[in-house]
Design brief:
The protein is mainly alpha-helical. 52% of the residues lie in helices and 11% in strands. Strands 1-2 form a two-stranded antiparallel ribbon.
Length: 133
């Protein structure tokens, strides 16, 4: 079962802490973030190859998406591996949906912004940028 950790820095003065939180809330509406810690096994290269083969064998991109996400629930993939899987989607909409859903199963979320190059449309880039915030 995943644990949720609350990251919060408390200054020495209570009033200044409240003011900092209020100002941060007004600026971003996300002053307190819940970050889900996942304990999962990292996927190896053979796992990536197996999933790619299964995805290529599917009839439609919807089935490819379902199959990829089902396999990603058992193992965590790094950003580079997610990028390799995302290139299999021909439609940019499905690629964006895959990137949004695969974010939860990525082991190094700090590098996830590097996958921006996979999206060209402004609409999908905006959705991707909202995911990273």
């Amino acid at each position: 079962m995943p644990r949720f950790v609350l990251y919060f820095i408390w200054p020495s003065n209570c009033f200044s802490a409240w003011f900092i939180l209020y100002r941060r809330y007004l600026a971003t509406n996300k002053c307190l973030r819940f970050i889900e810690e996942k304990k999962c096994e990292t996927a190896e290269e053979k796992d990536l190859i197996t999933i790619r083969r299964k995805m290529i064998g599917e009839d439609s991109e919807e089935k490819m998406l379902e199959m990829a996400l089902d396999n990603m629930k058992t193992k965590c993939f790094n950003t580079e591996q997610v990028g390799h899987l995302a290139t299999l989607f021909l439609e940019e909409e499905k690629r964006c949906v895959f990137l949004e859903k695969a974010f939860n199963y990525c082991s190094n979320k700090a590098n996830y912004g590097k996958l921006r190059y996979l999206l060209t449309s402004v609409q999908y880039l905006d959705r991707f940028n909202q995911l990273l915030q």
